[in-house]
Design a protein that fits this description.
Blueprint lengths: L14 H38 L8 H10 L2 E2 H8 L3 H13 L3 E6 L2 E9 L1 H21 L5 H19 L1
Antiparallel strand pairs: 1-3, 2-3
Helix pairs in contact: 1-5, 3-4
């Protein structure tokens, strides 16, 4: 039996029904693999967050990634990028600030707004954990050809770009 509940045949005549079922199977397989991948990524993110600081929420780890890669950001930009509301972002930023991982400063372009950035301590802690994560990827994918690793990165980038729209 196939996952869709049918046997080897599709029970219908015509090539388009077969093609449609094939696409459905492809998307079911994609959904299944992404679900496993995301579950593992969330668990991994939680572990890394605790390595940065024992009291750091796993959801805040992505903010550290963004701030390390892009530098100073407004809270509204971070909220839009992460996909959360202003209240959630404010709560996460307050927690990061209390842990000494980020700081705020007035935005010179708009005195009413604030820019958020990693503190020196936050940057050191984050980069130490991120480097350990990269080393883990290198070990886990050691049997992969570098071209395959690059292709996976390219496809994930393409997926992420498509999901931003």
């Amino acid at each position: 039996m196939h996952e869709d509940g049918n046997g080897d045949g599709d029970g219908q005549a015509g090539g388009s029904a077969v093609a449609g079922r094939g696409v459905e199977r492809e998307f079911l397989a994609l959904e299944r693999e992404l679900t496993v991948f995301l579950r593992r990524a969330r668990a991994n993110s939680g572990e890394m967050a605790r390595e940065v600081h024992p009291d750091l929420e796993s959801s805040a780890y992505g903010l550290l990634v963004r701030l390390d890669e892009c530098g100073r950001q407004r809270a509204t930009e971070l909220a839009a990028y992460i996909g959360v509301g202003k209240a959630t972002m404010s709560r996460q930023l307050r927690a990061l600030e209390q842990l000494g991982l980020i700081a705020r400063e007035p935005d010179p372009a708009d005195g009413r707004a604030w820019l958020v950035h990693l503190t020196d301590e936050g940057r050191v802690r984050f980069r130490t954990v991120r480097e350990a994560r990269r080393e883990r990827y290198v070990r886990e994918l050691a049997a992969w050809d570098r071209v395959e690793v690059a292709e996976l990165a390219r496809l994930l980038h393409q997926l992420n770009l498509g999901m931003e729209k």
